[in-house]
Design goal:
Strand order of the largest sheet: 4-5-6-3-13-16-15-14-9-7-8
Shape: globular
Largest sheet: 11 strands, antiparallel
Order of helices and strands: EEHEEEEEEEEHHEEEEEEH
Structural class: mainly beta
Strand content: 35-45%
Length: 290
Amino acid sequence: MAFFERTIEGFAPLPHAASQWSAHAINGAAVAGLGAYGIESEHGGPGLVPARFTIDLFRQPKFGPLSVRTRQVRDGRTVRIADAWVEQGGVPVARATAVLVRLTAQPAGTRWQPRASPEYPRPQDISTPSEPAIHWGSDAHPEGWSTVMSEHQNASRKRLWIYQADLFAGEPSSPFVRAASVGELANTLTSWGDKGIGFINHDFTMVLSRNPSSAEIGIEADNHSSVGGLAAGAATMYDRDGSFGVCVVSAVARGAAALDVSAAKDNWADTHRGSANSLSGSSDRHEAVK
């Protein structure tokens, strides 16, 4: 399973890249992964580690081929900055910026952390899957976790544990690309309440202390604030070794009704559709945000 395949026309979307908001559109997780891929493949290098990735999702791409162009903004002794534009038919649909740094020694001393020994939740007794899979989690669920998204439509804290699909068919994705496509799902977790997902994110920022150690990635909602249809959300990203990054997202209320998934029969492992990835885009991105 993958989001895209390479063709002479560009990066052609596969079924997994479809948005649940509109079957004729590409989801935001796929676009974010493509932006991260463009920057890493053209501006990454030995000793460089991605520290920050921001993407503005200002136009919903149709379900058709995409392309990526990039530009190096700065290359210093410690920091390299690069931009990428994801385009469709020569028209930009998203703009990404990444900061890549060269690692140095860890400074002396002890710094405050929210929990001395954080134990981030993950499905119990789950072994590393052999193919992409997802578990949904929420505080109000009687078992904590399940593969059925509709069971977690409630007003409690949300999380997910995902073995993310590859960006391109037949090509294993890099840890950075996987992180970017999972991080875009912060809006799904922070904007999802007991009546559905009512906000559409027009951007997200992922700040990393390291890359994920495997294809299995967790993300847990930390905060949500919204007034007058404008929302801000934050989430922590983690893997089996602990936390490795933080995501923040800005979102606006959807003009129509929220995306209600309470009746969805979407065991992701059976359908390979209806996953978190297909929930992260919308067919009506606010065109005023250019």
